Amino acid sequence: TEEVLRNTEKLVFAGQVAVSIAHEVRNPLTTVKGMLQLANKEVRLRHYDLIMSELERANLMVGEFMILGKPQAAIFKLEDCGEILQEALHLFTIQAKLSEIEITQHLAESATILCDRNQIKQVFLNILKNAMEALLQGGNIHVLLDVHEGYQCVTFTDNGSGMTEEVLRRIGEPFHTTKPDGNGLGIMIVQRIMESHQGKMNIRSEIGCGTSVEIMLPINRNG
Ligand code: ADP
Ligand code: MG
């Protein structure tokens, strides 16, 4: 009875997630297909960057959902947080260039944290993706990496659309999205990963001004 209900809920949730994946992966694949179908070799070459960036995007989306499916598969190791951050930032360079978005960095202090490398990378990717989506051409994302009271702090500040109080209050609620092609799972995944890492997340946002998302991860003193 109660368990049947719980299982039904899980199935409905899995179904909704499956639809989101299908949707998010199909969009970049359709773009790539269209470009590869272009008759002329030179034209194809000219679109190489965009093709690569779209494939990267599809790959990124699949990674996001893998974490939802297999939360037990985490592998905790001592890692340099700044290195993981660089890897995540690297994945956005082409897209940022194409969207004329500037990403600036201040890497004050990197620390060793005990974490699942892929999951922390996914946290950074989800936050960066939201920042990119909130920005118009010419926008800026500033990334700050530093250490504060035993925590590695990573702050992502964008000068994009910002959020209303209601959106901010509901952030992390599964499937709550303000985007026509959003899935409303990105921040929920970030929250889950932060919980499993004993980390914290703070979000400040002002409509029309921008958003600042701060991630705090406990530093490993033995690292
Ligand atoms: P999705 O991006 O698929 O909508 P998320 O969980 O990543 O799902 O984000 C939920 C909602 O939070 C977004 O739809 C958006 O309204 C808001 N949001 C998140 N990050 C930002 C940001 N940097 N700027 C403005 N709004 C944001
Ligand atoms: Mg998102």
TrEMBL record:
What are the residue boundaries of the Histidine kinase domain, all occurrences included? 20-221
Q: What is this protein called?
A: histidine kinase
Provenance organism: Paenibacillus solani
Q: What is the lineage of its organism?
A: Bacteria, Bacillati, Bacillota, Bacilli, Bacillales
